[in-house]
Amino acid sequence: MTEQLRVGVIGTGGMGGRHARNIDAQTPGARLTAVMDIDADRAAEVAEPAGAAVFTDGHDLIGAGSVDAVIIASPDATHAELAAACLDAGKPALVEKPLATDLTGAAGVVEAEAKRGRRLLQVGLMRHYDPQHVAVKEAVDRGDIGRPLMFRGWHRNPPEARPPTSEEVLVNAAVHDIYSARWLLGDEVSEVFVRGTTINPERTDQWDLQLMTLTMAGGAIATVEVNKDSGFGYEVGVEMSGSRGMVSTAPHHTPVIRREGQMRQSVEPDWLERFATAYVIEVQAWVASVLHDRPEGPTAWDGYLTLAAALAGAMSIETGVPVPVETPDRPPIYG
Ligand SMILES: NC(=O)c1ccc[n+]([C@@H]2O[C@H](COP(=O)([O-])OP(=O)(O)OC[C@H]3O[C@@H](n4cnc5c(N)ncnc54)[C@H](O)[C@@H]3O)[C@@H](O)[C@H]2O)c1
């Protein structure tokens, strides 16, 4: 491996564009050498400041001699195939969540990585690097709240140009919250129950506001509220109850202003702003882990298990009852 990690980015939209810029401008030890997007103009715009090459095919980028490691930030349905191609090429990759859109795809990636016998993939479940979430994790690990018993998460989004289906709310968005519940409670999901409602009256068959209850294998409980059309901006937070107390994320980064009989605080408009620091820390940690050959962070196994719980949620919406989640034996490479 070279001293400077030469990184290629596939998909240069909101997320991939940010990762590419963070690699180029914020990550010592890494260089952006290649980008690919089906929108050639968008790819060229992201490539230009770094002097990176523009590819028209993701597989060509993965195979390129000028690329040591890959960031996959193209649409959800492309992740599993591109991650498998990185494994075939023996190249480390930061794969955006979800790892796949169906469980067979996710299992295939996990199996392929386990067969290689060493971790090459990290999944973009980036709350793991958000300082506010990390502070909660540290408090839980220190024993500040005693035995963790309950998790409450909220994930409120501005509306998207194309509103998601009920299943997409779970597979695309709630996987983050499922990861947080597993990570902070230190346990696996054994059952999922989802109820919801519709905010947009023209889409009565789709739930853009969902409330998920997760039962953990050890008996702890988690609730997750995902709102895909909040009407006010973007907000993510967690609160944990334990046998001796509670801990929660600090409310917002922004100052509280009191004036003329009012108290006001701005809410971040979107995920790029709310998690700007987390995205920088995430790629820096990923690059360092690749350069030092010490894989860390969320794994393909996390990608598989968060997707399994999300899809159980989709099944719960369909059937109206709680749905069990199977946790297969953990392949040894995942510790
Ligand atoms: N970890 C996070 O916090 C986070 C946040 C947002 C999005 N994401 C994930 O990142 C991925 C991209 O999301 P986004 O918000 O940037 O979407 P986006 O629509 O802004 O960007 C997607 C880009 O991929 C390109 N594209 C489409 N098909 C492609 C293909 N087959 N090969 C290569 N490029 C292709 C599009 O032209 C577009 O530029 C998604 O998987 C999403 O779930 C993760």
Task: Outline the secondary-structure elements.
Blueprint: E1 5-10, H1 14-26, E2 30-36, H2 40-47, E3 53-55, H3 58-63, E4 69-72, H4 79-89, E5 93-95, H5 103-116, E6 121-123, H6 131-142, E7 148-156, H7 166-185, E8 189-197, E9 209-216, E10 221-227, E11 235-242, E12 246-248, E13 256-259, E14 262-265, H8 271-274, H9 276-291, H10 300-319, E15 323-324
Parallel strand pairs: 1-2, 1-4, 2-3, 4-5, 5-6, 7-10
Antiparallel strand pairs: 7-11, 8-9, 8-15, 9-10, 11-12, 13-14
Helix pairs in contact: 1-9, 4-5, 5-10, 6-7, 7-10
Bound molecules: nicotinamide-adenine-dinucleotide.
Q: Could you walk me through the main structural features you see in this protein, from its secondary elements to its overall organization?
A:
This protein has 335 residues and is an alpha/beta fold. The chain has two domains: 5-126 and 277-298, Rossmann fold (3-Layer(aba) Sandwich), CATH 3.40.50.720; 128-274 and 306-334, 2-Layer Sandwich (Dihydrodipicolinate Reductase, domain 2). The protein is 37% helix and 24% strand. It is built from ten helices and 15 strands. It has helices at residues 14-26, 40-47, 58-63, 79-89, 103-116, 131-142, 166-185, 271-274, 276-291, 300-319, and strands at residues 5-10, 30-36, 53-55, 69-72, 93-95, 121-123, 148-156, 189-197, 209-216, 221-227, 235-242, 246-248, 256-259, 262-265, 323-324. The chain has a seven-stranded mixed beta sheet with strand order 12-11-7-10-9-8-15, with helices on one face. It has a six-stranded parallel beta sheet with strand order 3-2-1-4-5-6, sandwiched between helices. Helix 5 (103-116) links the parallel strand 5 (93-95) and strand 6. Helix 1 packs across helix 9 (276-291) and helix 7 crosses helix 10. The radius of gyration is 20 Å and the shape is globular. Bound molecules: nicotinamide-adenine-dinucleotide. Nicotinamide-adenine-dinucleotide binds at residues 10-16, 36-39, 42, 58, 73-76, 78, 96-97, 124, 126, 172, 271.
